[in-house]
Specification:
By secondary structure, this protein is of the alpha/beta class. The protein has 16 helices and 20 strands.
Amino acid sequence: MTGRRVVVIGGGLAGITAAIALRESGIDVTLLEARPRLGGATCSFTRDGLVVDNGQHVFLRCCAAYRGLLTRLGMTDAVKLQDRFDVTVLRPGPAIRQRRHARLRRNALPGPLHMALALASYPLLSFSERLRVARAALAMKRLDPTDPAVDELALGDWLAARGQSEQARRALWDLFTVSALNIAGDDANLALAATVVKTALLGARDAADIGVPAVPLGDLHGGAAMDVLQRLGAEVRLGAKVTAIDVAQDSLPGIGRMFTVRLGRHADRETASPLDRNAATAANGMAIEADGVIIAVPPDTAARLLPSAAASAASAAWQGLGSSPIVNVHVVYDRRVMKLPFVAAVDSPVQWVFDRTEPSGLARDQARAAGQYLAVSVSAADEMVDIPAARLREIFLPALGELFPAARTARVTDFFVTRERRATFRQVPGCERLRPSAATGLPGLALAGAWTDTGWPDTMEGAVRSGLNAARELRLALDAPTQAMAVPHPAGVLGADA
């Protein structure tokens, strides 16, 4: 395949994955990213000497494609993966009136029995509620997430029809579905919720073991990807904003359909570093000829770039996927207030809270080494995304104090908020039929992104899988040999029952 050239538009996880897979197939790759960094929605920035991730990202042991990407990036030692699924769940309120602490921990039995003891002893639900949860879980195990009828159903309606109380939905089901799908639990797409529950909680024994980054996201993904792509001989251009993709059929003998990728002025040029400004200047007004193109950007941007030869009613449909926000609340205390690496909460504005002291560099700051940096991740944050930071401080500091008594007397040395307004597409009933496949109908042009049809929710795993799907489509179109970085077969990753 020497001489064949593919342009990948977008340097997020999907674009990075596709670029690596294609380059490993011997195809010349040019990766274009409008921003001055790689990594897409997983990025970091510096604030008052701390390295801050834009949001907290986690993965599970069953995320085979994402973990495969970490291996290719040489970053498997830069994450911490639990030996076994173990989550502490906190609830505010007087301890004398109700149980405030619970623990969900799998045992060594094969799935789905590995979660049975944790459910049977879960103190935030009554005995009868736990029995009904077990019955509903078995019923969900029989669901087929690929059934179009299941795609049209809401999780809340399905659970209510199977006797799940409001308390059961909030204290157990929402713990996993809200953070995984970034939508209110009752409004979630049943097919995607079933994928999460069947794969992670009812599948292989170790499927739900939780992994978290041990280094900043900018190093874990963007920095590592730049090193690998350059080592593989791929061309990476930052500050390169694509404005159009033109198609010319049979422009060269023996080649067939060719693409012209046009670049324009980079929107962030004035705030970029001198090196990135030079890259942006070099990109302005340029055109790149390619045998194939992968569009690995959000759906609204992808729709604008789609050539007229590939435009169809389908593109209008997937532009209707919408978006859901995530709000991240960052709090730095002058002392340690939380002993665990992360906890979940119910009946609280806090959903999940993570200890970011080590990755942020706070522990290495001699002046603040005794302190602790907590990051609160709030999914399905439609009602909070526009609330001013001062008001969020009034909400979340008392809420953290309710969960962690030591936080009530600790001094807050910093408080700030990051907002991901378009963190994911809206994973509501009917969304699966709107998600496009990697193939566009135009040979040599493919789509990638966690919003495309991967069979997974809009997650890092979904993004990587989409990149692999797109690379496979391009290899078929260009008749390139298939390499080992193929998409894992669902039965091999999710288990035969998933």
